[in-house]
Amino acid sequence: MNSADRPKPYDFLNSWLDRPIRIKLRDGSSLEGIFQSYDVHMNVVVRIQRDLNISYVFIRGDSLLTIEKNEK
Question: Which residue in 68, 62, 72 sits closest to 26, CA to CA?
């Protein structure tokens, strides 16, 4: 497989947009929500829904440890 055929990191992240994810942060906490967007610094926006309230959380890329699919 040559380098042109390999998937790029952004291709991978784009496939997770609008899907449930779980984020683990450097301080040991975690967050679950819908992956809304990201940028080149790995800053991310996550939509969180609790009951009828919807909020958006912006997380700086330097605070992230992991992002994983949250398939319940």
Answer: 62
pLDDT class for 1, splitting at 50, 70, 90? low
Buried-exposed string 15-39: b where 16+ CB fall within 10 A, e elsewhere:
eeeeeebbbeeeeeeeeebbbeebe
Please give the structure tokens belonging to residue 35.
């992956």
pLDDT tens figures, 26-58: 999 999 999 999 999 999 999 998 888 889 999
Count Cβ atoms within 10 A of the Cβ of residue 46 and give its class: 0-12 exposed, 13-18 middle, 19 or more buried: buried
Give the pLDDT of residue 28.
95
SS3 of residue 29 by DSSP: coil
All structural domains of the chain: 9-69 (2.30.30.100)
